[in-house]
Design goal:
This protein is an alpha/beta fold. It folds into two domains: 2-207, no CATH class; 222-505, TIM Barrel. It has helices at 5-28, 35-57, 61-67, 73-90, 96-120, 127-144, 170-207, 237-250, 265-280, 306-320, 334-339, 344-361, 376-386, 410-422, 438-441, 443-458, 489-505; strands at 222-226, 254-259, 285-289, 324-326, 366-371, 394-399, 428-434, 463-468.
């Protein structure tokens, strides 16, 4: 049932946008309406769709720099709708039954839109404002049914036009009542459910800001970065340029990429050319086989097509020769969101086949698997992978802020600590993915989350590296580089960690 929440929210978003355009356009053409009110409604109807397109276009490094100068349009649209609702209510042009909820809703999301705009441009608003931004993000998790919405630009609150003339039909009045109820529920979700959790989460981040990295004198800890969008087609030139510049700045110890099952030969060949200079520098390369539909939710779960995944693995090993291969990126994280709950036995069978396929091409490649949900299934898969009889060479964890467990990452790291105690490590471990959500909780939270995980990982001698997700925003807001080209504070934290570890090794 929860799998339908995300498509349902997107469908409602489209319905509200259509309603906004039609109704605001009708009010703008109503000669009996005040001229100022007509102008506000006309501008709102004219700009709501372009504003939405601009905010989606500025969510990725690939197109963001080209339209970054226009990202003010969406906050302006939110202010227009708030002004329209306020004017209609104060002048008595709207029934108070739906005028008041729509006014409060529009004012609330306009304020949050301005806060998000400030954060996207590198500002650090005061804690109450960031808490409000985080509260909306947490409410969106409950509306979308998955934590994946925290980084997605598609999940946002769109404004509502205030219906400033009487309903001409009972069906119209019923629809207006539904919209006012929707607005009321969102305000309740954000203030009553999201805000208390947001305050707790932000304080958790601050509590770990001063964590210390453990020195690794043997230089046996690598800090890596995941680069480029998930590969299904050849990597876009803007992404190559931006990520190459970031790698030159950071001097990272490992590189990670994600390949979508069924990726074309041209895509993998292009990726091989991009990675060739990195290969010559002997920098370890980690390749994970990902999933389709990681950004736009599908109405039904994708099928687990093992033959396509194995064929992709074969092409990846032949052309890229990675040091570590993850045949499935986060089986019970992004894997479960894309495929549904695949039984542990099926994952084990697939991983055995994947290891056999990969090592038939390159005996040196090491096979890895990562825990991410820390559920019973994840625990069972981890225990199997850690056993000497499994073909898994490297075990790992994915650690991202959780919206469900009091915020922060501590619940997941405590679970990982327990697993490490119960099953003493005989195999190498990595943190295969970590990061934060700068547009959901603010950029300081992303910086604190990355630093907290690096401090935790370096304190475990069996963990040999951590990969930061990711170099830039590619449809998901979690990059070290913002779509407008600005480096976020988390990039400084990664650079500081690399330098400290290098100094301890020297």
């Amino acid at each position: 049932m929860t799998g339908l929440l995300a498509p349902a929210h997107l469908a409602l978003t489209v319905i509200i946008i259509v309603w906004d355009v039609v109704l605001a356009g009708r009010i703008a053409q109503n000669d009996q309406a005040p001229r100022v009110f007509q102008a506000i409604c006309g501008l709102a109807a004219l700009l709501v769709v372009p504003g939405l397109l601009f905010t989606l276009s500025t969510s990725t490094v690939i197109t963001g720099r080209a339209v970054a100068a226009m990202d003010w349009v969406w906050p302006a649209v939110l202010l227009l709708f708030a002004a329209q609702a306020a004017y209609a209510f104060l002048r008595g042009l709207v029934n108070v039954a739906w005028g008041i909820p729509i006014l409060i809703y529009n004012l609330l999301i306009a304020l949050i839109g301005l806060i998000r705009y400030a954060v996207a441009h590198g500002h650090s608003p005061a804690e109450p404002f960031v808490s409000l931004l985080a509260a909306q993000s947490l409410a969106m998790v409950f509306a979308g049914g998955t934590s994946g919405v925290l980084a997605s630009p598609l999940f946002l609150n769109v404004p509502m036009v205030s219906p400033a003339f009487p309903a001409l039909h009972s069906l119209t009045a019923s629809f207006r009542f539904v919209m006012s109820l929707y607005a009321s529920l969102w305000c309740a979700f954000i203030i009553a459910i999201g805000l208390p959790r947001a305050v707790v989460q932000l304080r958790n981040y601050e509590a770990h800001r001063r964590d210390q990295l453990r020195e690794r004198p043997d230089a046996d800890f690598a800090v890596g970065v995941k680069i480029l969008p998930d590969m299904e087609s050849p990597p876009p030139p803007p992404a190559i340029r931006a990520d190459s510049a970031l790698l030159d700045t950071l001097d990272v110890d490992a590189i990670a990429v994600v390949v979508i099952p069924g990726a074309s030969r041209q895509a993998i060949d292009s990726l091989a050319r991009v990675l060739e200079p990195i290969r010559r520098d002997s920098t370890p390369i980690i390749v994970a086989i990902g999933y389709r539909g990681s950004i736009l939710p599908e109405l039904r779960r994708a099928e687990f097509d093992e033959s396509v995944r194995l064929a992709t693995i074969r092409r990846v090993i032949e052309r890229l020769h990675p040091d570590i291969l993850l045949p499935a990126e986060d089986p019970y994280g992004s894997g479960e969101r894309a495929l549904g709950a695949v039984p542990v036995a099926k994952w084990e069978s697939y991983l055995i086949s994947a290891a056999r396929t990969a090592k038939a091409v390159d005996r040196k490649v090491r096979i890895g698997v990562s825990a991410s949900a820390y559920t019973r299934n994840d625990s069972a898969l981890y225990a199997w992978a850690a056993s000497p009889r499994s073909p898994i060479d490297v075990l790992g964890f994915s650690l991202f802020p959780s919206p469900y467990v009091g915020g922060g990452i501590q619940a997941d790291t405590r679970t990982a600590d327990r697993w490490l105690r119960v099953t003493p490590p005989r195999k190498e471990h990595w943190v295969f993915a970590t990061g934060g959500y700068p547009l959901a909780y603010g950029e300081r939270s992303q910086e604190a989350a990355v630093w907290e995980v690096l401090a935790w990982a370096t304190n475990h001698p069996e963990i040999k590296g951590a990969v930061i997700y990711e170099a830039g925003d590619y449809g998901q807001a979690r990059g070290l580089r913002a779509p407008n080209g600005r480096l976020r504070p988390a990039e400084s934290a990664v650079m500081r960690a690399i330098r400290q570890l290098q100094e301890s090794a020297r």
